[in-house]
Amino acid sequence: MLADNRIKTVTSVAAAPADVPAKGRSLWRDAGRRFMANKAAMTSLIVLIGVVLFTIIGPFFAKWSIEKVDWSVVGNVLTAGAPSFETGHYFGTDEVGRDLYSRVIQGTQISLLVGLVGSAIAVVVGTIYGAVAGYFGGRLDSAMMRLVDIIYSIPYMFILILLLIVFGRSFIMLFVGIGLISWLGMSRVVRGQTLTLKNREFVEAAIATGSKPRDVIFRHIVPNLLGIVAIYATLLVPEMILLESFISFLGLGVQEPNTSLGALISEGAQTMQYGTYWQLAFPLVFFITILFTFFFVGDGLRDALDPKDR
Amino acid sequence: MAPVLTVKDLSVRFALHESVVTAVNNLNFTLEAGETLAVVGESGSGKSQAFLALMGLLAKNGSVSGQALLGDVDLLALSKTELNQYRGRDVAMIFQDPMTSLNPALRLKQQLAEVLVLHKGQDQKQAETSAIEMLERVGIPEPAKRANAYPHQLSGGMRQRVMIAMALLCQPKILIADEPTTALDVTVQAQMLDLFKTLTEDFGTSLVLITHDLGVVAGVADRMMVMYGGRPVEKGTVDDLFYDPRHPYTLGLLHSTPHIAKRAERLDPIQGMPPSLENLPKGCAFHPRCAFAFDRCLAERPALTQLENGREKACFHEGPMRYGKVA
Hints:
- Chain A is an all-alpha fold.
- Helices cover 72% and strands 0% of the residues of chain A.
- Chain A has one domain (50-62, 88-309): MetI-like (MetI-like fold).
- The A-B interface holds A 22-27, 137-138, 200-212, 215, 219-220, 223-224, 226 and B 55-57, 60, 81, 83-89, 92-93, 95-97, 100-107, 114-115, 118-119, 142, 145-146, 148-150, 152-153, 163, 166.
């Protein structure tokens, strides 16, 4: 099936550019075409957009808020709290009678937010940090990268848990904690790429025309890094979601009544033995869908932006 | 005429792990306004490094000494920030490989405009208009359309034209072209050389042509400087050096180029290999490969001496040289 896919990709690309005029055909547009030809990635992208739309539109159809306890279900969750359209609990209720539909939507929102924020911090901080270290090289590079090594060597889960316990469990602390570690890998990737880019002649040519180091980095190096940054950032989103879920699974993530997919899965796993399987199934399906689609989209981006590596 | 560029005692050294290599040794030369100077030599003769040093583009382990006077400014004494004022505006450089000298992520007009925004204080729009005019001058068809293209949409010859356009945008006093035609095929080479000739004449730019292709030199240059082992060995007008070479190395170079009139079976290359800069031979650096070497060449290094017609050579051999296969 994969082989099939590839052959089709090649023919469609070969057939397309026949009527392309001398208009700027950027690397990005080429990549876009390759990406569109990748079925797995396109399907994933559509599903992902669907999930995002669902978290936006879904709340309008909710009959219950995330914290309202449905007293008619309490004590009888196994039968009365099952998924049903009549009660308005489309996804059923959780163990204390709160509407799972609303809670899954909210958990998905928060998980996505955590992933995107973590990855955005990585893109901004990691790219600048890595590009500066790689471009200037020498002692500055050594100092900057050793700092990254040092932060890497600290057991971050331990630090994150300490942070959350000492400063209390809050969104901001969670973002600070995730932001603290998310850019490390990115900065290494970017630095490595910068090292190869800075010896390319166009960078030398830019220096020879009198560009300042800042301009060289932002005009000549960073735009050439964006491909790899985009790939890495997409693959970082599910990683961040996993990280947050793990923390939530330990009971240290977002605070009740707010929730995240990790927290919901944790609760669902605890009550699985009572037969309320839906409490695990619904958050899990969303969780897996998000992770899979992000990985596939990231993979598709890599194939599209860097066809050499296929 | 006052020279645009006067280089005095330029030396370039590279620190290796345990030793220091001198890539360019006490180089002196002047560049007159509007003239074309060819710098010729084998790989490793220091011809590129000398000019990279002027542009402040040496590798990290390189160091430079001497003076390079552009007007009354010593380029070598400037800090990197001060140098940025002159790079691109007064001295521009074109590199060997046009395929990698353009940023693949920027449209041509964005890339070309950068120089003007930087040095002429033009805004982006103005700069892009001038960039398009310049593209037209270097012979790019449909320049307004092409300016929106990305480098990968152009052929090698086109890209080198773009590089030339970029270098000439600020109408620099000096254009340094480091083997500008090496990566191009022969027909395109000829077009490029024509372009160099007409444009530098139009703008009154002095051209430094770093090359190992004597055919290129013959077509374009006014004067030439032959380098060997980091030192100039012969200087003079192109005509003098081509028709009456006085240094055995120049003679050897001329003999190792194919000649259209002579039907030679095989080329007659200079025997031996260029010396390692880490371990230059004693005396004249060329003596191990020289057919005319005698005792004195092994013991002391010949200095550059003035000859008639402004020529200079660094060789002890006097009198005519007959070149043939040396057993």
